[in-house]
């Protein structure tokens, strides 16, 4: 009888171990340069939960927020391409030096609301997927940051306040436009922003209300000016070699999780701005939601040359902008 009990316990242990190994076949590290509470961070958590659910627990995604794996935002494209990480969140605006298509969603004043966002992504996604295949990765989901504005030490209520302002830009589009409008703009990765603020190298930052309040920008910059500059799109991609090694049912699970994450993240935009402003005001941030029209007018004017140059350098992909404008 004793031998039977021991054998049963052993068999039970083996079965449990086998079940555990079957339940979790893949563990993937996923870097994100932004915080867990940022728009991209929330999307990442949603994606991982949905992947776990739809894969029956066979895939576990381990998050590494705030650049804790050591990669800067601009590094993620090559990190996934080379297999340094199996998947990553990409802020596309960092990749303008690779291909102009990555700058599309951050073109100035291109999108203003959720309807614009959905219209753009519908025509953008297939072109973007093809481009990313060239970097050995598969596009599985998209996210966004709400419209970018100006975080600053002193209020930026009109064009005069922008003149000579040492402001962080996040891509070529914002760099050239703000420089053209008279600011002393500096293109800077997100990971370098806090040190630059601490040292006084910059006095303002172009980014969303969402990223600013969730990253503690209000500790340095107690003013935010709404200009609805851009709604930058981010994406999640998986290394294609990793993808090709997955069974079809897990590929399908990831596709479904990615599509659902995209849908939820885009839908969140309609309420996100108001929630961000409430949180900012509660922390003492002065939100300027109706600056002098001369500020936006000058930025729109300064952006036109960049948009036209983008059309030229984008080549065949410039058709995406035409298709979007037609849908809009």
UniProtKB/TrEMBL annotation:
GO terms for biological process: transmembrane transport. Residues 1-23 form the signal peptide. Keywords: Signal. Pfam families: DctP. Coiled coil: none annotated. InterPro entries: DctP_fam, TRAP_DctP_sf. Transmembrane segments: none annotated. The keyword Transmembrane helix does not apply. This is Exported solute-binding protein.
């Amino acid at each position: 009888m004793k031998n039977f009990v021991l054998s049963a316990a052993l068999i039970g242990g083996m079965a449990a171990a086998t079940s555990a190994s079957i339940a979790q076949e893949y563990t993937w590290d996923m870097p994100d340069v932004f915080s867990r509470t940022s728009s991209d961070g929330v999307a990442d958590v949603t994606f991982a939960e949905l992947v776990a659910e739809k894969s029956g627990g066979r895939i576990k995604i381990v998050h590494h927020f705030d650049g804790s794996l050591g990669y800067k935002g601009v590094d993620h494209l090559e990190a996934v391409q080379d297999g340094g990480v199996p998947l990553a969140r990409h802020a596309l605006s960092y990749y303008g030096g690779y291909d102009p298509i990555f700058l599309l969603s951050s073109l100035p004043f291109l999108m203003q609301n959720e309807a614009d966002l959905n219209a753009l992504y519908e025509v953008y996604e297939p072109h973007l997927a093809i481009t990313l295949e060239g970097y050995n990765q598969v596009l599985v989901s998209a996210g966004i940051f709400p419209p970018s504005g100006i975080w600053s030490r002193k209020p930026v209520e009109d064009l005069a306040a922008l003149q000579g302002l040492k402001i962080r830009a996040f891509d070529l589009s914002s760099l050239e436009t703000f420089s053209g409008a008279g600011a002393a703009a500096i293109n800077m990765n997100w990971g370098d922003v806090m040190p630059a603020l601490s040292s006084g190298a910059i006095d303002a930052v172009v980014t969303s209300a969402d990223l600013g309040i969730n990253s503690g920008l209000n500790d340095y910059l107690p003013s935010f000016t709404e200009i609805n500059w851009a709604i930058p799109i981010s994406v999640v991609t998986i290394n294609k070699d990793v993808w090709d090694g997955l069974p079809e049912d897990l590929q399908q699970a990831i596709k479904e999780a990615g599509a659902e994450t995209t849908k939820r993240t885009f839908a969140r935009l309609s309420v996100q701005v108001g929630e961000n402003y409430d949180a900012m005001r509660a922390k003492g941030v002065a939100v300027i939601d109706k600056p002098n029209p001369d500020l936006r007018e000058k930025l729109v004017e300064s952006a036109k040359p960049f948009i036209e140059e983008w059309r030229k350098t984008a080549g065949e992909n410039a058709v995406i902008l035409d298709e979007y404008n037609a849908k809009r």
